[in-house]
Amino acid sequence: LKPPRLGRWLAAFPWAVLALTIHACAAPEPPPRNVLFILVDTLRADHLPLYGYGRDTSPNLQVFARGASFFSDVRSQASCTFPSVNSIWTSRSPGTFEGQAGGAMGLPAAVPGIADLLAGHGFHTVAISASPIVRKNPSRFNPGGGFARGFETFDENCLWHKADCVSDRALSWLHPDPRPLFLYLHYIDPHGPYAPPATYTHRFALHPTDKDFIRRGDPNPIANWVYKGAPNPGITAADIGYLKDLYDDDIAFFDSQLQRILTQLQANGMAKDTLVVFAADHGEEFLEHGGVKHCHTLFETAIRVPLLFRVPGTPARKIDGAVQNLDILPTILDYLKIVPSPQLEGHSLRALIDGSAPTSPRYQWSAQGSLRSVADGHFKLILDTATKRVSLYDLVTDPGETRDVLTAKRADFIRLRDALAQWRHRHEGSGGDEAEKKLRSLGYLD
Ligand SMILES: [Zn+2]
């Protein structure tokens, strides 16, 4: 059809104009071209204003959230970096990664990770990791490395460095390129020791106590007391308060460096076709339940994490249904139109993000050492498989998990207990306890 004839034809049939318009509106969005995955190690959801915190620790994340889908009820699969990050990258339970030969922490050969999958679909895959665990090469904390498979570049120059290092190096990769980019950034600012850079002006840690290790933001003397039988170093509420102040300043410093990444993404036009994921691998404890640091419990302090997706062309939305870090990979693959393996344990959150389906009730699973937990957005059951001790918490009326309601809420207890037993059977078989014994014998779970 030549244009004049098409024009006459459309004028004669106005319904055709309408039909063409409807068709254009209904045309599916093209898949995002790039993926930027920002993971903040040790970031507790409840220390972000987005999750109700009274302090403004993350003003730039707040602005980012205005254009993103924000999940309010998210659990990580473990309270340790390994295997929480492994679970995020592969959408498999922690049991998949425990008990590897020689205590290896990296991705097992038979389990594809996100970088493998995206590299196989033509993505230029780059990681910048400040973590001593999420490594290509061996480190003191991860003697086997093993996280670099699928990445063309795995940059370890920022090991233990603060967010300015990760953001500096990330900016050099964030530019339009003929190849789609998968950029994974692993920040560790809120991980102990809690110590923002000397150049940073404290916003929250303003009243140090008289102990040197507290002023340095070092929780290890407390950990030695709690977990290793060392004498109590005379810890006061003010000491813990100051550590939390420093932790908040670490979050605020990270947030200032997040802004540099988001600004460049806008400035160079990549924001319009880049899927941005914001996640954390676990939280941190400050004696709320008698412990410090992480890797020790499955309380909310340790496993309740933030999760946001910014999908180009999709309006911002707050989503309250129970989801988990296992869902991150299936969601990314869904948006990229990559068919997921049936072995992925998580579910795509795309319909929730797009607003095309309501939340369906799901369980959130976590495992750490001998502990297992299952939550459903209202109740949470924690089982210690070593002592067989079980507790049930009502997260709605008691988010601090201070009252065991196992006896009062018998029906919910039985429902979650049976669900957990089935999950353990499916994902741990009879080998679950053996894997734990092995890790314990290697000293990893102390
Ligand atoms: Zn971690």
Structure write-up:
The chain is α/β, with parallel strands linked by helices and 446 residues long. The protein is 33% helix and 17% strand. The strands form 3 sheets. The protein has an 8-stranded mixed β-sheet, sandwiched between helices. Strands 11-12-13-14 form a 4-stranded antiparallel β-sheet, covered by helices on one side. The protein has a two-stranded antiparallel ribbon with strand order 7-8. A hairpin with a 5-residue loop joins β7 and β8. The longest helix has 31 residues. 45% of the residues are buried. The N terminus and C terminus are likely disordered. It binds zinc ion (ZN). Zinc ion (ZN) binds next to loops.
Mean pLDDT: 91
Helix content: 25-40%
**What hetero molecules are in the model?**
zinc ion
Distance between the termini: 75 Å
Percent range for β-strand residues: 15-25%
Q: Order of strands across the biggest sheet?
A: 4-3-5-1-6-9-2-10
Shape: globular
Brief synopsis:
The protein has 446 residues and is an alpha/beta fold. It has 14 helices and 14 strands. Zinc ion binds next to loops.
Keywords:
four-stranded antiparallel beta sheet; single chain; binds zinc ion; disordered C terminus; 446 residues; 33% helix
Structural topology:
Blueprint: H1 3-12, H2 14-26, E1 34-40, H3 59-65, E2 69-75, H4 81-90, H5 114-119, E3 124-129, E4 153-155, H6 163-171, E5 181-187, H7 212-215, H8 220-228, H9 237-267, E6 274-280, E7 285-286, E8 292-293, H10 300-303, E9 307-310, E10 317-324, H11 328-335, H12 350-354, E11 364-368, E12 371-375, E13 379-384, E14 390-394, H13 410-428, H14 432-441
Parallel strand pairs: 1-5, 1-6, 2-10, 3-4, 3-5
Antiparallel strand pairs: 2-9, 6-9, 7-8, 11-12, 12-13, 13-14
Helix pairs in contact: 3-9, 6-9
